[in-house]
Structure formats: structure tokens, C-alpha cells
Write a structure and sequence with these properties.
- It contains 34 helices and 24 strands.
- With 937 residues, it is an alpha/beta fold.
- Among the domains are: 256 residues; 208 residues, no CATH class; 72 residues, ACT-like. Chain A, domain 2 (Alpha-Beta Plaits, 2-Layer Sandwich).
- Strands 3, 4, 5, 6, 7, 8, 9 and 10 form an eight-stranded mixed β-sheet that branches.
- Helix 12 crosses helix 20.
- It is elongated, with a radius of gyration of 45 Å.
- It is found in: Membrane.
- InterPro entries: AAA+_ATPase, ABC2_TM, ABC_transporter-like_ATP-bd, ABC_transporter-like_CS, ABCA, P-loop_NTPase.
- Pfam families: ABC2_membrane_3, ABC_tran, ABCA12_C.
Amino acid sequence: MADSSPASFLTRANAILRKNLTYQKRNIWSNVRLIMIPFYLCIVLVCIQALVDSQVNKSVDYQCGCKCIDKIGNGKCEMVCGIEYSTRDQGVFCAIPKPQPWPPLILIPRPQARAFDSSFTDDSCRRKNTCPVTILFTGNNQSLGAIMSRNLLTRSFIMNSSDLLFSLANNVLATTYKGSATNYIDAGIVSDLSIYNIQPRCPTMSNFSFSLGQSPLNFTKEMRCVQGLNLWRNSSIEVNDELFKGYQKGNSNGMVHEIVSGYDLLDTNKTNYNVNIWYNATYKGVSGNKPFKLVRVPRLVNLVSNAYLQYLKGPGTKMLFEFVKEMPKQETRLRLDIASLIGPTFFTWVILLLLPVILTSLVYEKQQRLRIIMKMHGLGDGPYWVISYAYFLAISTLYIICLMIFGSAIGLKFFLLNDFTFQFIFYFLCINLQISIAFLVSSAFSKVETASVAAYLYVFGSGLLGTFLFQFMLEGSSFPRHWIFVMELFPGFSLYRGLYEFSQNAYQGNLNGTNRMKWKDFSDTEMAEVFYIIIVEWFIALIAAYYIDKISSSRKDPLCFLKNLNFFKNSPSSQRPSLGKQISAVSVEMEKIDVIQENEKVEQLMLEPSTSYAIVCDNLKKVYPGRDGNPPKKAVRGLSLAVPSGECFGMLGPNGAGKTSFINMMTGLQKPTSGTGLVHGLDICNDMDKVYTSMGVCPQHDLLWETLTGRDHLLFYGRLKNLKGSDLNQAVEESLKSVNLFHGGVADKPAGKYSGGMKRRLSVAISLIGSPKVVYMDEPSTGLDPASRMNLWTVIKRAKKNSAIILTTHSMEEAEFLCDRLGIFVDGRLQCIGNPKELKGRYGGFYVLTMTTASEHEKDVEMLVQDVSPNAKKIYHIAGTQKFEIPKEEVRISEVFQAVEKAKSNFKVFAWGLVNTTLEDVFIKVAKTGQAFNVFS
């Protein structure tokens, strides 16, 4: 026995979950292919990596060099490998048991970006590239600061070729080139840029060259003098402000003013040494690791320490910082990891490929109106969102797990050199944001094709723009960091940024053998910012998507949530439904007394606190706004109607009369312009979600899932009607049998393979399963053969015992067979209402005589009819065939037969007939009368 109470949240969630699982079972191979996409793409990467390994990584150009040498002089040579036999490029791969010592360098700004003080120089130094490098001092004791600033820089350059490193260490060397990951070769020395010697004043002919290192890792560098300018500031706040404003931002003229470093001497004196050092940490290496930043800092510490020692012990005292060198290393080879190099672009595409799948699935349900038909049968927004979101999340999670497993199994460093939990949490957050965005933007599309094109543009655009625009800005030191943050607000770029950090860590880890990115490094990386952005955008997108979906599906005011506030609440009287109508003073035609009586009945019902009527429409109106200069279209002009349970009410009317607009308002597809409708006491304007739980709908066009069977459809909608267990199975079986879809395996065939008639019968069965209290049927028997149509009529007639049914049809035979009452709707108005016999009696109190003769005897026929009935009216005339309406009260059928037999003796009658008034005649007459009346109303 069916439970008459509405289905609970869990019951409806269970219904859509089972439907989705069944749907995916029918599409299992599509899901398998989707899950296997990461595997195929990872295989592609492996193939590319194998090609790179064979052509690049194993190439002799990228390993320590070898040479064939005749060691014993017998004319035979043997291959000997080592740094002495290598080119400069090959030397970095050789074993280095005794690494080359390099002089310590300071990082200084480029000449065009150096700050200058107008008291000491002017802006012409910018054009000449002669601006000094500025070092700022502050502290509690200015006199001490003056002494230490004088001691900071050497005033003469001494070169001893026999001990070059010692000579260089006595001077303050600097470079504009950032440090590198390792210091086997100092990037500042091997670059094409000059080495600078910072002195208080640059003497004439101060440039010279020096050679450093042994072949093949030997370099000849030009050393240029650059003036160092030490300036005092009154507080650390001034120093910090000047450093901040100078870096890359520029002043009001747009010029960049960068400072080398700053020293805060604090409370330093002869017994206390306490110094804070500012240094430029914004120049990063490729991965942003600490060694890239700090390799230039030790010389800054050494300079201020030496200045303090000289302050205490005199100018001859020094703590010499002679060189920097790496630990010994074994021979290495080039390990170029393609997955890490192209990882940001490639895996951005891989992960974002889920977006078109999710978006097109959502838009498909919207385009095929499957979402609204589910809602009409009682599926609320809550269960739909929870199950749909959980389903997409499960598929996406399985997708990224397969991606990580496949990538790790085939040895991609991108996955192996980054912590697995770190990666999973990042991907998990990304797919949640991606699902939320799909729900959000699905409201903007009505066609699957358009949504698919837009989604793939987003996918490939994010990868390409990330590679050729966003990555360029990430690696460019001149691009403001706050704009990086702004760009990361775009979801595609936040995903790209995270993958970029993974790829750079994996690339450097592959080269240097460093550890993988772990959670303990979270706060020291740029990933923290990316995580926070994704989490915040996820929640914002999810809330916005649900809100927009709720507004669009319920047709509410976008600011409806404000109505919960006191100052937006209406007074109690404004919330009550209309209790009556204001009837204009218009002339009333007597033949519309039935419509007036229906209006009065509705008024009385609206005054009652409760009613047994299933459907009550009170002055329902629908006006579509005018477009392109056309006036507003009045589709429904004040409809009042009351339909009790157990009645089938038929809506008849010509095309465009307003029947579909009326059905759409009653089923929640459109909001009434004015008036109201009650379904078992529930207002369609405010309580539509509750109305849906007791409603069944058979739309004009079949809304079915192509891959689900007829049984699957009925099981799903039966669960929405709170049918369970054996009751559900029995109801499904009876529904299938009633519409002749049970035998021959038809019930278990996909609906996409059904004929048009079979789909129509299934739609009717769906609308009736669970014995809904109210059923709307829009031309239910369209496209059926006579036998199926008669069987379907029997099903509907049996179902109306416990339901109120509103049915639209163009078949007068169907209307007479099924409908207890009929209403003829013309130009938005109800022209008449009553049962079929009443309507035929009221509008069809005449016989219809049809006679066909030769054209010359047409007058004779007219005279014959006038003799029989003086008030007869000719309604049809063409090529000798004439049709007359004869009032029933003026003639008897026997008299008509006698008159026709008498006429046959006078002229030839080809054919004749006498019929009673049909419902079709009534329909045509009322429609024509109503249209003529509305033209002048």
C-alpha cells in the first residue's frame, strides 16, 4: 500500500542516487574510458620521456667528457674520462672531488634601478649607468654609525696575482645576478654580466680583468668599480619604508629606486654588538628555495662584522671572508624530466578535462528538461544537489586518484618527488572548486553544444595562457607580486600555480636529489596562498550556484532572502490570498452564465478556511512583456476554475488560446502575473515545492533518459512518491501492464529504443504512478494507434477515481470519453464550461443536414430546407454541397426524411445526411464566437 505522506529527504536522495547509479551502470564503458584518460596521457608522457632519455639525457654532450689517450706509447689509446677532458658544458657533470672556491659576492640592483640621493648625484646617472649603490644605516648612536659606515668599504684596490682569492676577498665584490641552486659554479661569475667592486670613490682606470678557475671551468671576468653610498636614516621605520617603496614600485615619476641593504645598529657599542640586516630576498631562483635567496647574504654579515672589529681594534683588524665552495660531488648526468617541464600546462589540461564532462551533464538535464520533470514529481533541490554533487565528486576523486597512481607507477618524477597527501589535498580542493564552478555557470547555458565549446575554450585557454602569460609573470622579477595574487583569483591560474610549484620542485629535486615537497614546507612555499584562494572561491562559488539555482527554479525575487528581515516582511493582510474579485461593470452575455457561476463558486471557496476541491484557480492571469515594439501578450485573462478530486477536467481550445501557459503556471514553470492557484490548499506562488510532492505530470513532449529502461523510470519516480519495497515493485509492474509495456521484454529495453507511441505510454504511466492527488496531462494520446489510445483512455479513467486530472487535448472523442467537465478556452478566456452533454445541448440544439446536388438545383435545396424549418441556417456551401443547421424544436427527423424523399422525385440528389450536433461543432462555434467577441472587447 502506498504511503500517502510525502517522501522524506533521505527517501528522495535514495531515489536519485539509485537512478544515477543505474544510469552509470548503463554507461559503464563511458565511465571506464573517462577514468582511463589519465593513464593514456601518462603513457604519452612516458613515451616522450623515453625519447628525451635516448636523445638528450644519454647524449655524450650531457655527461662528463672522455678522450682517447695513448698512455704507454704503444700506439693504442684507451678512453679516459674526467673534468680535464671535458668541455665547459660537460664539466658540470664530472665528479668534483675538490670544488673550485669562489669569491663571496653581494647582490646589487641593476644600474637602471639603483636609488640615488639628489644631494650627492642627479638623475643623469641613470642614462650613464653610473648611479651609486646605496646602503642605509640607522641605530641608536649616529656617531658610531658614521664610523662603521666609513669602515664598511675599502678605499683602494690591491691585486696579488699569486693569491687571487685573498686579493679579491680584501675588496667588496658584487653582482646583479642572483644565486644558483649549487655553487660548483657561481652564477654571478660565469654569467655575461660584469663583476663590480664597491668602493667609496672610483679612481680613474679602475676596470680590469682577472682569470679564475682551471680548465675547462675557468673564466675571465671584467671587474668594474661602482661607487658605494652609505646614508644615515633616523629610524628603522624610515629604512623599511624606503626599502619597500623603492623595490620595483617606483616613485611618482615611475622610476625604480632599489637599495642594496640596510643596517640597523640598534644599541651597539664597545661592549655590545647587536645588528639587524635588511637584504633583498625578492630575487628568487626558479623554484624559490632558500639557498637561491641567501647565497649573497653572508658577505653582508661579514662586512658589518669587519667594520665593527675595525671600530674596536683599528683599521688593520679583519675577519677575512676568503671564499665560498661546495662539498665534493660524484659524477652526475643530465636528468631532464619532461613531465616536470611541461607539467603545469599538461596537467592543467588533464584535470580541467573533467569540467566539460560535468558541465555538459548538468546542461543536458536542463536542455532536455529532465531536471524540471524530476522536480515536478517531488524531487526537491536539497536531495538533487547533495546527490549530484556527491556523484561528481566521487567520479572526480577517482579520476585524480587514478592519475596519481598511474603517474607514480610509471615513474613520473612530478608525482614521486612531491608528497602524495600534499598533492591529493590540492587536487581534491581543485576538483571541488571545479564542480562548484560547473554548477554556477550551468545556469548561463541552455544548449549542451554551447556549454561544451565554452568549457573546452576554458580548459585549453587556461593551459595556454598559464604557459605563455602567467608563468612569464611568475618568473619575471619586475612583475608586481600583488598582481600575481589578483591573477590567481582566476580558477584556471590558481590550479596552474599549484602545478607550477609541484613541477619546479620535482624538476629541481630530480636534478639535485633534494627531498620532496612536504607539509612541513607548506608555510614556506607559495602553495599556502593558492590553497587559501581555492578554499575561499570554492565556498563562494558553491553558495552562489545554489542561490542562483534556487532563484531560477522557484521563480523567486533575487532578494527573497531579505524578506526574512523585519523591514521586508509584508503585513498579514498582504500575505493572504485574494478573497474575491473586483468585477468590472461590463455587459454579461447570457450564454456565459456557466462561466459566471464557476467564478462565483471559486469566490465562495476562497472565503472558506479549507476546501475539498483539489484545484482552485482564482482570477489567474499571465501577461508576457512586449518585445521589439510589440504590445504585451495577454495569454491568460483572469481564469477562475475549481476541480474536485475524482474529476477529469478537459481544456479545449485552438492553438495559442493560452492552455499551455495555464498548465505551465500550475506546474511551476511560470509565475502568474496576478491571481493565485491553490492545490489542496497550497499556494502555487509560495508553496510549489510542497505541491510537487503530490503532483504528476505528463508533458506534451516525452522527457526521458535515453539509456534508462521503462522499469528504471518507474522505479525512480515511484520512490519519489514514497513507494517502497514490495509496494514499489507491485506498482511498477501494474503500471507497465496497464500501458502494455510489460510483456516481450519491453520494460527492460532502453527508452531510447522505444517508438514514439511507447514513449508516450511510458510518460502517462510515470505521471500516474504513486496515485498523485493532482495530475496534469498535455495531449497524452498524441501519436498512438486507435487500440493503444483506447487502452490508455481506460487507464486514465480508472486513475481519476483518486485524483483530480486536468487534461488538454485536440481530440473531441478523447474529451467526451475521459472528461467529466470541459472548458473551451479562447484567447485567454474561458468561454464555456460544463459536461459534454450540457455543452452540446446548450450550444448545439440543432441537426446538421448535408446535401449534394448539381449546381443548378442549389436553389431547390434551399427552398426544401426552408419549407421544413423556416429558421434553418446555411453554414457551408461549395460546389453543389450545402450544409444547414436546423433547430431541433422546429422539426422532427421523420419530417426531414419525407422531405428528402419527395425532393428526389424532382431532381437528382447525389448524397445527403442528417446528424446530431457533435462536440466538434460546439467547439468550432464557441471558438469563432469567442474570437469575434474578444476582437471588440
